[in-house]
Each structure stands twice: as structure tokens, then as C-alpha cells.
Structures
1.
Amino acid sequence: MKKINILIANEAKRLGRYYGFWNLFEVFKPELLENQIEVNFYNKLNKKYLEGDYLFLNSRLIPTQDQLVSLDYLKEIKKQNENLYWFDMRDSAGTTQFEVLPFVKKYIKKNYYKNKDIYLNELKGGRFYTDYYIKKYNINDKLEYNAKILDKKFLSKLILGWNLGIGLFFDYTNYSKFDYYKELIKLSFIKKNNFLMKLQNYQNWEDDKSKFDFVCLMNKNFERKSVGFQRKKLSEKISKISKFNKIADIRLNKKKYYESLRNSKVSVGAFGWGEVCYREFEAIACGAAIMFPDMSSIETWPNIYIDNETYLSYDLDFKNFEQKLSHLISDLNLRKKLVNNSQDIMNDVHNYKGKEYFIKKIFEIIS
């Protein structure tokens, strides 16, 4: 039996281990054991963690200096166990930590640019879209983004993992915060992994005419102007649209947010710190079709970003944005197709297809 030891810190104390990014290790634990793999979670670096056959490092927990990973810290870990696997938990395909590549066996990331040559050059602001906006609109960030470009000899270490869409989102429409903590106790201490309080896929086409035309709720305040530029541009666009019934520029708690998604035809989103956002997966689960910036350059899994099949795209300059939004709102059959296809992809994550992907991926990582 081989041991995978995963360092996740505070995420281990919340439902993140069971409902969030790491939940596939719990959902498919029997299949891992059948393949002679035992998985253990640790919330701190200690001797027991370091004794694993494969050490999965959460990038959020390793110290940084001047925006780069502290390699001295990483070297100290490597002295005790060379079997290090780096999970880059940063949000964007462009925000990388390639300085660790000489010290780890594999580098796993939630999403990559399909064209890896992009990583051979500097990206202003650390992302393809920030680079585009900075150069086109002369945006100045207070702090330059500092990142190491990819050395081609390490290209084979780059492994696509999985994104936040594998999350079993907690159902705040039917359960309270008290239920949340009750679920956490059940999963953590009773070890009963039924995930009964997850958000269920929802559709309501019978009341379509009474729904809001679209919902657009997002944070627009970012310390980097280049990161927040697209969301502010989107906000300006939708503020000028008066012919549609919309929910925008308000703050809602999770319950009311999910209810608003269930009562809206379309959810409109934009990039933030990264491209893939949990909001799009929540919208799909709630039965709202999504309209989102063009994702054709991004490689990710699960992939709900197939234009005109699972979502409707708009480009970085918002060309024909309002016409596309109008079309999506008015075309019930298109919205049904997008929601059905997206929900099918999400359903597959924790069923046979997801199991097949995950087990194969784990062996790809540790091989």
C-alpha cells in the first residue's frame, strides 16, 4: 500500500475536504484503496506527513517572498523527502509558480493555457487577459506582477488536475449554518460520507416567463486594476441595458443568491483573479444558462466552457455583447441545451466518468 499525504491546513477543518477542491479523494476513497493507494490529510507539516510515499504540497501553505515561492523552505522539505508534487492553487491559468519546477516531481494546476508557448514569455499582470488590457488601455498596476517564465525542459512536469467545479456545493437553500456544522461533524468524526446536503441540480422552465432576464453579481474591487478591468467594463455595459429585467450590483447571502439564480434565465459573469470561477458552476446547478468571456484558450476539467454547447461566450472587447445577451435571453431552446449539457458534465464528475478521470489522473501524477 502506497501513501499519498496531502497538506491542506485550514481546509481540513472545514467542508473543503469533503465538499470542496479535495472531495474526490473522499468520494473515490474505496477505488483508491483498491488500487493500493491510501490517502491521508494533514493540516500542518510534521514528521508523519513527511513519511509519505508521495507528498502533495498545497501552494497556498508554502511561504513566498517578493511574490515568488521561498525555495529555501522547499529545499528543506526536499531534504527529508524528495517525492514532492506541487499543487498550484492559484486562480488563473497565467499565475504560475514555475520557480518550483526544479524541486518537484510534477506540477499540477487547475487550468492551463492550451498553447504552452504563452508561458515562455512575460505576461503583464500575470494573465493573458490582464496582458491584453494593460497593453491596449495603458493600465498601470501599483505593483508589477513577478513570475518566472517556463523553462521548456520542465514542460513534461506540467499536469492538468481539476478545477473548483468538482465541488459538492453546500445547499444553503434548504439548510442552515447549523446544518453546515452538523454536516462537518458527521463527515469528520462519524466518517459517514453521504454528502446529503449538497446542492442539487435544478431546472424550472414552466415559469420561464416570470423569471428575471439575467443576474450579474460580482466583486469589482481588486487591488490590481488590470484584474478588475473586465468586471468594471461589464458592469458599465449592463448598467446601460434598460430593456431587460435584471438583478445586479447588490450583495446577497448564499441562500438568496441561489434563489436568484434559480429565478433567472441567464447568469452573466467575467474573469476575476482567474478564469474558472465557482459562480458559473453554481449557476448551472441552479438552472441558469451562463454567458462568460471566451474560454477557448483554456484547458481545464470539468470543462463547462464549450461555446454554444454549455455556455455562450463574449470576447475581451465586448463586441456584440448586448446582441448575444439578447439572443440568449430570448432563445429558450438554446438555454435549455446549455443548461442540460452543463448539468450532464457536472453529474459525470462524481459518477463513472469522473472516477475514471480521477484514478487515471492520480496515476499520471505519481508515475
2.
Amino acid sequence: MNNLQSLAQYSTVVADTGDVDAIARFKPRDATTNPSLLLQAAQNPKYRPLVEDAIATGMRASGDRAAKAEALMDALAVNFGREILKHVEGRVSTEVDAKLSFDVERTLAKARRLIELYEVAGISRERILIKIASTWEGIRAASTLEREGIHCNLTLLFGFGQAVACAEAGVTLISPFVGRIYDWYKAARKVDDIPADEDPGVASVARIYDYYKKFGYPTQVMGASFRKTDQIVRLAGCDLLTIAPDLLEKLGNTPGPVERRLSVEQAQASPVERIALDEARFRWMLNEDAMATEKLAEGIRRFHADAEKLTAYALGLVAQPA
């Protein structure tokens, strides 16, 4: 048995990539994407047919260039999602544009549109998770979508208050970002590394997991954004772990079992106390957490910038000769 096989006994392994070939190779249950991953995948010649089909869809859309570009991006996200679903038994996460992170109504409209495109293509909404940034507005939109039977994955989650708000909203799944928390503290402490047993990113996910299981929230915890395998194995037992292909390969090449670190039984015995959370307290907790405030804002900017690059890349292909 290798580390990856052992880990899969305790946690659902998810591939964090837009590379369909990598997903087919590792055969995870689920897969996640984001604009940064899709930008990388779309520039790979082997996926050019998916891009060209999305371009054709966008060019057929009514409206100005901006409307066509939006239709193109929706089609591109769904095209990659549909292709990924051919290789996983479970779900794929498809992200709402980060520029909508502070707009409840437009987030709702975009999520519904993406689900409509999947359903027209014959894909059940049960196989889709709509990825939304964990802002107060994003969480409110997700709460509405969940009541409509549209399941959500709340991403760019760095602070404990964000996690509590997501659980109270009844979202299906959250993606706390281990690696980006690690990056922030490494820079703040001016060190080259932080051991996994002292890693604030690992500790953050463990705290959230314990809180959810202690108080019986059905929202699942999916550790995300890992920098090294030590971070992953320290979270064995977390509901899900979304892992990039290079780290999946390292785990698969490392012989031996992995020790379970998180469990419902341990969580229920933990001394954590329940938090009463409203909008004011949510915003205050986020304000008091410099890391979470900075990484949330940075993540929204980066995802939006990569979405813009992806749009420009695809539109640039329109002008190229056949």
C-alpha cells in the first residue's frame, strides 16, 4: 500500500486540476477547477477542441463583445466540466467569476446559468458544485442556491468566521486553503518552512473539521491548496482533500500507510464552543484576522485576473486564421 491508497481509506481524494489526462490517470472521485487551472489547461493543444467549441458558442450569442465573451467563458467552464465528468464518478466544481464575489443577485444568476448549461447537456445538477468565494455576499447567495437544489463549494476560505458562516448557511462543501495560509505565515515569520505539525494552515482545517463534527453540521470540509505532502497526510480523515497532480504522484510513489489524524469521535470530544454569528460579527472576525483578510482579497483579484487572461486568450483565437 502507498500513501495515496492509504489516505483514500480515510478521506475522499479529489483532483485539483483542469488537466483531463491527469484526472483520467489518477481516477479521483471528484475534481475541482478554477480560472487559474482552466487558463493552464486551455492553452494545451490537446484541449483545443473544447476551446473552439466554446468560442463558437460565444460568437453565436446575442449582444455586444462583452456579452459574447461572457457566453464564451460560461461555455468553456462547462465544456471542461463535462469532459472531466467522463473520468470521475462524483462531482466537478465550476467557479463563478470572482468579480461577482460581492454581488448576491449576479452570483445567483451566474450559478443558475451554469447549471442550466450543464442540464441542457444532460448533466444532472447533483454532479455539479458551484464554486463561490467565501465573502458574506457569496455565502448568502450559496444559501439561496442550496434551497433551490444547487449545491455549492465555498472557496477562498481562510478564516474561522467564514467557515462558521458557511455551516450556518447550509452549504454543501467548503474549501479551506491550507497552502495559502502557510505562504502568508511563512512570509510573516520570515522563515523558509513551517513544519506540518506547527502549520497554521493545517491547524485551521483541523479546527474547522472539529467544529463542524462537534455540532453536527452536514457541510463537508475539503482541505485545499497544498504545498507539500506533509500537509496532506496531517489531515488524513478530513471529509475530502483536493490535491494537485504532482502531489498525487508523490503520494502514490511513497510506500507505506498514512495515520488517521481527524475523526468524528475525536471532534465530538473536543472542548470547542459554539459561536453565534451574524453579519456584523462575521465582518469583525474577518477584519481581526489580517491573514484571512489579505488572502481573501488577493485570491479574488488573482482568480479574476486569470479569468480575464483566459477570456483574452480565447478571444485572441477568434482572430487567428483557420
3.
Amino acid sequence: MFDKVLIANRGEIALRIQRACKELGIATVAVHSTADAEAMHVRLADESVCIGPPQASDSYLNIPRLLAACEITGADAVHPGYGFLSENARFAEILEDHNITFIGPSSEHIRIMGDKIAAKETVQRLGIPVVPGSEGGVRGDLEARKVSEAIGYPVLVKAASGGGGRGMKVVHKPEDLSSSMAAARSEAKAAFGDDTVYIEKFLTRPRHIEIQVFGDGQGNAVHLGERDCSLQRRHQKVLEEAPSPALNADSRRRIGETVAKAIGDLGYRSAGTVEFLYEDGQFFFIEMNTRLQVEHPVTEMITGIDLVLEQIRVASGSQLTLTQDDVTFSGHAIECRINAENPRTFRPSPGRITYWHPPGGLGVRVDSGVYQGYSIPPYYDSLIGKLVVHGKTRNECLMRLKRALSEFVIDGIETTIPLFNELIRQPDIANGMYDIHWLEKFLSKP
């Protein structure tokens, strides 16, 4: 087991990793920018190192400074959390070259899955169903027209690198294809330094279903069920739940077993998430995230398995102690992403929190690194906390969520709590009848 883990992240996920380390008796190092000097994860760590000014490029994304922090503190492992450098294969390689363990997958698997085209080809060989589309990158308009005509409109032009909805354009008719290709390439180049794009069939009313997997790099792998992440705005997840109200026991078992076998055959190590679009009873692979997900707590709530603790154990060389028969599912869980944003315009709302009262009670979990008097800096993602509730049934979970939201008080800034208060009162949400386009339509109503 490791002696000291450096956490290359900030906010609630840094605090989440700290807690797992402390339960394992491992010392922690918090790194922080000058803007995060008073952050909770910095206050609670065993050691802390300032790695630069507020801009992420000069601090949390600066590999030489993170490496120096490891050397100064003697950290023998790094947990990247999510975002920032969590899916940066070069960062993992550099740490390995310096005999520092990257708590996550191998750099090879990060690199494969980070390239959407290579990922699609890899999982297809492993037996995972994929969305119909181009065999690889599409460069010219003629090739794009041929592919689009073969699979039928509408189609989706997607960046081969990156994610988060950038470099992604929906094309409904042939005359819009050329301009959409140019726009997607330009956006992809600016965001990811790679203008390669490919084409897939655009599904009209799919759910976004993702399977949580875990492997030990030694051929052992399990799945921990699915999460439904269909409530999205601009391809960004807003609310997640597990299990999905759209799946039955048979479809859940089949896709879980398929993915777990593929991950074991791949020799994948650590936590990972295989994401699908689900429509008319069929699953279509879209990408794999080779890291811990923001929404991992909903899986923890229904399985009782600490994903971060397992990441650390496996990274230290231990075999996976879980078998698929050991994984049991209990009840229902929902997560709301609480952002420092206007609940309607989604304009960021940094500033000082003048009052902070999180909810409590049975089945209620709040993952957050903020506190009363804390000033939210304007330089980073607006996520300030995650409200996660669990109930024996989905209906009980929804009722508990209503109660928890009514108790959650944050003053001094705007948050998305009012949006969730609206959403959970909608019949479609109560009945589980929504797809990935539902929230955009709801928000467009006057």
C-alpha cells in the first residue's frame, strides 16, 4: 500500500479522495492554486503545496509543477480525480517514468479510449455494440456525403478527441453537411488540438446509459450496474440516477455481462465507465471514460462499494477481491449536481457563500468542498456540490430528494437548486419518461 498520495485536483473530488486515503491510513498531499489557498481539501490534507496562480494551465494542468510537488513531499502515488489531467496519457507516463504510481488505468488504455475512433474500433472487436457510422476519421465532404447517405439522416459529426459536446454537430439534411463538418473541425482543433472528426447515426430519442466497470489489470473485471444520465443540457449531465427506469432486469444483465467481459479481456485496470445511447431496446457505444465519474456516488449508494478505495487498492498491485456474484444492488439513488449558476440562464455565479446549510437524514449524502464564508473562485468549473439520495424504491428516493432539496440552503450566490425543485415535480421525471433531449425542450419553454 502507498505511504503518501498526492491529489492532483481540487474541490469536492479532492476531499472525496482524501477521505478514502484516511480510511486506509494513507497520508495525503493537497495541491492548490493561489485562488484555492483556503479550500477545504487544503485545510484537511496532511500536507499542501501551492503549485501556481489561479489559471488552471499554470497550476492544476502544469505537469512539471505537479511532479515537483511529488518530489518535495515524497508522494509515491497520484490520484487525478476527474477532469484536469485525469485522462492525460502523457501525465500517467511521466509519473511512471519517475516511479510514481498513477491511480488509474494504464497510459495505453487512456490513450486508446481518449481517441473516439480508436475506442470505437477497440470495443467493437471486444463485442460491444456501436453506433452505425464511419469506419474512421472523415476528412473530405465527398466521403462525408457517402457515409451520411449510407446510414441515413440525421447524422452526428463528432470530434475524435475530447468530449463534453465540443466539436459535435447534428446534421438533419444534406445541404448542411459541409458547413457542419467545417464548424466541427474548427471547434475540435481549437479545443483539443486535433481537427479529426467522424460521423455517426444521430438517434432521435435515446437515453444516455452508462455502465460502471472495474478491473484490476490482471484479467479480472466486474460491472457495478448502470446509471441513467439522460437529463443533460448542451451534452452536460445535470441529474443522474441508478438504476435506470428504462431498463428491465434482462437488458441490465446482458449489457453488464457484455461490458464486464470486454473490460476483463482488455486487461483494464481501475474504475471506468462505458457510455451508451439506448433506444428501442438497443445499446450503442459512444465512449469510455477512463477515470472516476462525477456521478460515481449513485453507484456507491446502491452497491455499498467505495470506488475510490478500490481504485487505490488495485493501483497498489492488489487483485480485485470482488467477483460479479459479490456485487449486489439495493434500492435507488439520484444525484443532483449543485452548480454556482443561475438556474435558468446558467450564467456562473462565483462569490462568497454567506450561509450554508446542507440537508441530512437517512439516505442523504452531500459531497462538497465548500463551507460558510468560503469564496467560490471564478476560474474553474461551477460545480460546488453533489446532493445524492437513496431510497428503497425510486418513489421513496424521489420523495426523499424533494425533502432534501427543501432543506438545502445556500446564500450569497445563485445555484441550480431551484431548477431541481422544478424538475422533480414534473410528471415525466416522476414517471421516468425522459430522454437526452427532454431537458433542453423543458428549458426552452417560456
